[in-house]
Amino acid sequence: MNSPTSALSPTNNLLAQLQQIGLKTIPAHLDDFLARATKAHWSPRQLLEQLVQEETQERSRRSLERRLRRSGIKKFKPMVDFDWSWPTKVDRDVIERALTLDFLREARNLVLVGPNGLGKTMIAKNICYLAVLAGSSVLFRTAAAIVEDLRHEMFEGRRRKLRGYGKVELLCIDEIAYLSFDDKAADILYEVINRRYESKPVIVTTNRAFKEWNQVFPNATCIATLLDRLLHHADVTSLEGESYRMRESQRETTARRKKTHETPG
User: Can you say whether residue 223 is alpha, beta or left, with left for phi > 0 and alpha for psi between -120 and 50 degrees?
Assistant: First the structure.
């Protein structure tokens, strides 16, 4: 009686062996790969080179997908859609320099300050995305999400998660000061920022001037120290103007009214 292995056809046996050594792309398209090799008269060396190239490309693609998924960046508009003329104040040089990712090597923080609807989160997400493309580990989280993630953890659990926030190569804390927090929230954010102090960069977006953070974190005693750590090695840039989203909403409303008036009764 034949064993299960001996009952396999040569092609199926090769397929199983390729999968066993960890290949993904070639086993999924083995017949097509062999047909291309035969048609092009690849030498054994050319065949191996093509196999390695296709497997490497697929592994790079899967790695990028995993890092993007873990980053939490999700959907965003590319910088090509950013209207530089809309804010009444924007330091384009600082933002474009950040998009080169030089601040990663320098472990400098980037703080974007300004009212809602001017593109702070959009800019931050674009920088994070470029960092992922460059091979860096990235976490994009709102301040509220970080606080919620750490607030109810016991000592060991919090320490383990803080190591994660400290270890990632780029951390973006979005929407600090958008909501009112208690003093525990301020302590948590301080721990996160302190873990990265002078070692790894942080991007922060906020709609409140730093002098107003005591109002956002009432009774917190660590605000001055938190800001000291955050701003010590940082590029701080302010955006001013009216909400871009509000402008878009007004345009859509005007367009709908115009269409309604033009429609025959």
Answer: alpha
Residues facing 240 on adjacent strands: 89
* Residues 128 and 173 both lie in one domain: yes
Burial of 43 (0-12, 13-18, 19+ CB in 10 A): exposed
How many domains, in total, are found in the chain?
Answer: 2
Tally of CB atoms within 10 A around 35: 11
**149 is written with which tokens?**
């993630």
Phi, psi of 239 (to 5 degrees): -115, 135
Q: How many C-beta atoms lie closer than 10 Å to residue 104's C-beta?
A: 18
Residues 80-125: tens digit of each pLDDT: 999 999 999 999 999 999 999 999 999 999 999 999 999 999 999 9
Instruction: Please compute Rg for the chain using Cα positions.
Output: 26
Distances (CA, A) of 46 to 42, 52, 132, 189: 5, 10, 32, 54
Full residue range of the structural domain in which residue 219 is found: 79-246
